[in-house]
Amino acid sequence: LPPSAAANLRPGAEQKVVFITARVHPGETPSSFVCQGIIDFLVSHHPIAKVLRDHLVFKIAPMLNPDGVYLGNYRCSLMGFDLNRHWANPSPWAHPTLHGVKQLIIDMYNNPKINLEFYIDIHAHSTMMNGFMYGNIFEDEERFQRQAVFPKLLCQNAEDFSYSSTSFNRDAVKAGTGRRFLGGLLNDTSYCYTLEVSFYSYILGGPTSAVPYTEEAYMKLGRNVARTFLDYYRLNSLVERPLGTTPKTR
């Protein structure tokens, strides 16, 4: 690696990994725009993006169901499977993308040099407004409370993200999802979420002030997701401030 390479990428360095996946349900196109916003921000010249790249490793699988997307399916894969119900035992033949991503996650989890700290799976919701998250339920109260920190911070950064719509559950129907399966597999320093965003609008102010989502608004939510890691890891002091931003004294 060149001398300017981030310290977290040097051989032998401990890596904090954020793993993000999207579009496991082909019809949920907003998830792709949110993921695009995350990617575009992280590879940009923005001072916050530079700090994030220096301290975290982002692994992103932007389309878990490319066959279903190509075919125009709404929810299932080429072979008719809802891939988000097969995380527990994905087949390399029937669910190849899931199998490959799960194996990569397990390999990272078993690597002592890697801390897999976040897993976020991006979806779109057809009936609820705003962006919100699903998290897991744990018997350990402290772990449960720590899990609420990231969505609370995201709520402060994104006007269209709703913490009141965010919920933590262990619904049996969702047992095969990425969030549920990995939440049970990974250790108590890892946080697994489903990030949902409305297909149609978000609410600002009162209940009658619904704002239609646009592609740009979805990508802005993605940018705000990325920025929230700066707050979560308390890296704000490392961001280089552009010259001329300090107010002149009289």
Automatic annotation (TrEMBL):
Molecular function in Gene Ontology: metallocarboxypeptidase activity; zinc ion binding
InterPro entries recorded: Cytosolic_carboxypeptidase, Peptidase_M14
Gene3D superfamilies: Zn peptidases
Short name of one Pfam family: Peptidase_M14
Annotated catalytic residues: 196 (proton donor/acceptor)
Domain Peptidase M14: start-end pairs: 1-233
CDD domains from the UniProt entry: M14_AGBL4_like
Keywords recorded for this protein, A-Z: Carboxypeptidase, Hydrolase, Protease
Cofactor: Zn(2+)
Gene Ontology biological process terms, A to Z: proteolysis
PANTHER family according to UniProt: CYTOSOLIC CARBOXYPEPTIDASE (PTHR12756), CYTOSOLIC CARBOXYPEPTIDASE 6 (PTHR12756:SF9)
Family the UniProt entry places it in: Belongs to the peptidase M14 family.
Protein name according to UniProt: CBPC6 carboxypeptidase
Gene source species: Sakesphorus luctuosus
Lineage: Eukaryota, Metazoa, Chordata, Craniata, Vertebrata
Gene, per the UniProt record: Agbl4_0
